[in-house]
Amino acid sequence: MTLLPRPSVRNQRRLTRGMQLLLVGIIVYGVLYSQPKAITNGSLALLITFAPAILERNYRVPLDPWLGLWITLAVFLHTMGSAGLYGAIGWWDHLTHAMSASVVAGIGYTFARAIHLHHEDIHIPSRFAFVFILIFVMAFGVIWELFEFGLDVAAAGTGIQMPLSQHGIDDTVRDMMFNTLGALVVATFGQVHLSGVAESVLESLGAPDR
């Protein structure tokens, strides 16, 4: 499977800086107009956008421009949705679920690949990795929906507005469908992009690969 087109490092940095500036704007808006949801979502998303650079600089994990932009874009789209686009654009929620699921799938594959490299008795064929990614994301999706349900219960009991909420069983089923779509994209294309990440994670932890 060939690699997906990737942006240059310069373009990736420009796009990332642009999204970070918009996230700062959301935080400032939340502070000025007393919107704790905007402050919380914007701050968390802004911190996550620095994760690719930190992984590369401090832990020497190779994240090519496509991967760095992928992680940043996923949290940015969710934050923009929480800022009002979820209600204004019907398909925005589907887009963010597919993107978030793809990031979860990438994390799941990286850890599975690291186990495959580190333990001589464990062998994970690429075809099984495809199935593993799907199952991993679907299981995480179930846990996430239960988490949202718990927030709904807490909001009803305390009257405090939560950053996440469910919108009925139909919405939950659609969320799971788009979670699966995001997992399929990673299962099909992501293994090539992530092949070197697990090896570097092991090296940074001092664990020899096989």
What does this molecule look like?
28% of the residues are buried. The longest helix is centred in the last third of the chain and has 33 residues, at 126-158. This protein has 210 residues and is mainly alpha-helical. The chain contains eight helices and no strands.
How would you describe this structure in keywords?
8 helices, mainly alpha, 210 residues
Summarize the biggest pleated sheet.
Answer: none
Portion of residues in helices?
over 70%
**Between the first and last Cα atoms, what is the distance in angstroms?**
23 Å
On the 0 to 100 scale, the average pLDDT is 79
Low-confidence stretches: none
In sequence order, what are the helices and strands, one letter per element? HHHHHHHH
Task: Report the principal-axis shape.
Answer: globular
Strand-pairing-aware structural class = mainly alpha
Q: How many separate helices?
A: 8
Q: Radius of gyration in whole Å, from Cα?
A: 18 Å
How much of the sequence lies in strands comes to under 5%
Number of strands: 0
What does this entry show, briefly?
By secondary structure, this protein is mainly alpha-helical. The protein has eight helices and no strands.
Topology:
Elements: H1 9-32, H2 36-49, H3 51-59, H4 65-88, H5 92-118, H6 126-158, H7 169-193, H8 195-204
Helix pairs in contact: 1-2, 1-4, 2-4, 4-5, 5-6, 5-7, 5-8, 6-7
